[in-house]
C-alpha cells in the first residue's frame, strides 16, 4: 500500500480544513486503528455512544467514513449488535475529488458572473444595461442621458469577491496537489473483511519488528553494578576535591587577601564592587 501515507495526509488535510476539531480527532483515531468498534471508540473518546453518533453524522453523510453493523455471539450465547467504523480509501479519494471539482466549477461560474455586463458613462460613472444603452443611442453613439458623456463597454470585475475566491483556491492547493499525486496509484476499494485482514497483517509486522529484551546474566549484573558504584565513588571524590579547592580559594577584602572559607559578614560589607563580584563567583561555585 504505497499510497497509504499520502492518502492519510489527504484525508487529514480535508477534515481539518472543512470540518470541526472533534471530527479531526475521530478521523485520526480511525486512521490509526484502520477499523474500530464503537465500544473502543467510546473508551478512546471518553464519550457515550449517542454523543459519538452525533459527531459522526457529518462524516457519514459526506462518505468520509463508512460503518457496518456486526452481530457477535458471546460465550453466554447472547447476541450483541456492534458498529464498526472504517475508511474506504478508494471511495474517499473520489468523494474528495468530486467535491473539489464542484467547488472549482462554482468559483469559475462566480468569476464569470462577477464581470459586469453593459456600459458605463466615462463622465459620471452611471451604469447602463446593454438594452438601456441601445435605447438612448443617438447616431449610433452611446451617450449618457444625464450628462451626455460617452458610454463605454463595462469590463470591470467584482474585485472583493474574486479576491476571496482566489484566497480560497490558494488554500486548497495542497489538496489538489495530493489528489494529482494519488492519481498514479491504483487504490482498491476495500470492505470490512479486507481491512480486517490488513489490520492483522500490520499488527503481525509490528510484533515481528519488536526486539526482545536482552537477558543479563547474574555475573554481568554484578560487573555492571560494581562499575556503576566505582563511577559514583569517583564522582563523589571529584566533587569533594572541587569543594575543598573552592573553600581554599583566595578573595580580597579592602585589598587584603583572605581565604574564602574565612570570610565573615563584616568582610562582605567592607568589600568594594569588584571584590564582592569575585567573592560571589567563588560563592556560586561552592553553592551550585
Automatic annotation (TrEMBL):
SUPFAM superfamilies, per the entry: Zinc beta-ribbon
Q: Molecular function (GO) terms listed?
A: translation initiation factor activity
Q: Name one GO cellular component term.
A: transcription factor TFIIE complex
Which Pfam families does the entry mention?
TFIIE_alpha
Q: Where is the HTH TFE/IIEalpha-type domain?
A: 7-93
Q: What is a biological process (GO) this protein takes part in?
A: transcription initiation at RNA polymerase II promoter
Keywords for the protein's UniProt record, in alphabetical order: Initiation factor, Protein biosynthesis, Transcription, Transcription regulation
Q: Which family does it belong to?
A: Belongs to the TFIIE alpha subunit family.
Please give the name of this protein.
Transcription initiation factor alpha subunit
Species in which this protein is naturally found: Vairimorpha ceranae
